[in-house]
Amino acid sequence: MDTQQVSAPPCAPSPESGGSTPSYGVIHVHVRHTTAFTVVGNHLTRHRTLSLLAIGLAVHIQSLPDGARISIKHLAARFPESEARIAVALRELEATGYLRRSRVRLRNGRIVTRTVSYDRPGTEAPTVSVPRPRTGRQDTPVPPAAPPASAPLPPPPAPVVHRSAPVAHQPAPETSPAPAPLPVALPAPTARTAPPPPLPQPQDTDPELHRSASALLADLRRLAPQLTLSERDIETLAPGVVTWLERDAHPDTVRQALTTDLPVPLKHPAKLLRHRITALLPPPLPGAQDLAPLQRPGGIVIPLQNCDLCDRAFRSRHPGHCRDCRTGIHFAA
Fold first, then answer.
1. Which of 52, 193, 205, 225 has minimal CB crowding within 10 Å?
2. Mind listing the pLDDT tens digit for each residue in 268-304?
3. How far from 168 is each of 172, 276, 294, 325, CA to CA, in Å?
4. Residue 267 contacts by C-beta under 8 Å, 6 or more apart in sequence?
5. What residue ranges do the domains of the chain occupy?
6. What is the pLDDT of residues 106-151, one digit of tens each?
7. What secondary structure letter does DSSP report for 257?
8. What is the CATH number of domain 42-123+154-163?
9. Side by side, which strands form the sheet with 160-163?
């Protein structure tokens, strides 16, 4: 009985003091962080509907300081995921309330995207005024002469602002509330080096043709939605279309000339139609005298005769037989 059983398995190590070691699953090794850490709620890390990419992206955004750039291009340059996958993850965070993006106008007139990150969805964010120019971090003053490399560059295209559940360190400013997001203004048209050619003008002011031309221009948006014109543009372009109709151009021909091979994107539909109406204007149809047979030298035209045998038309000064019938009669003889 005192013989040692060398074949028996060794005993399992005793658990450490203060806890028990599980027999399966993950085992955590906890280390107390004192610097460079981020507090994240389990409602985010254990979310049931968010994808792993969205959860990781939300944790990364919450770890960034206020004013960091989190545009899709910046995130795609930072991580191996594509811009399309990052855009889908950002939309997931917006749908679940962890992120909110809006467009605001700065005091200098520039429109930027303002991104607000929430530690917990449903937290009421304080009223935010028009963004002030950022010269440095508010918690750590930085001399303006030598800003650190991590300081944000004003103005960022997509700043992020974190809104934690207790927002005690960010009191609401006393300025007026932020205005509603405004649409981005279209750029001013480029200057022309030469004036555009004049629009063709009809020879007769027929109200029926003018009505047909206006209806044709207004109906172009059925074929191409990007060719939606205002009433003023239709009134301006109608005389050019009337000129096409005066020259016996079929309405389907006009539609095909105005809607074929449209540029993408189409920024100025009225200018494009004005150019096509002017540059593609067909000539008038030739008259009967233009289609008459050419006269031979001396003003003599050989008339047409009908063959006595096959009734084929041929040119001759005297009636009789055509060339083929004359050849057949010769061989028969």
1. 193
2. 899 999 999 999 998 887 766 666 665 555 556 788 8
3. 10, 63, 98, 112
4. 186
5. 42-123+154-163, 207-279
6. 888 888 888 888 888 877 655 555 455 555 444 444 455 544 444 4
7. H
8. 1.10.10
9. 99-105, 111-118, 160-163
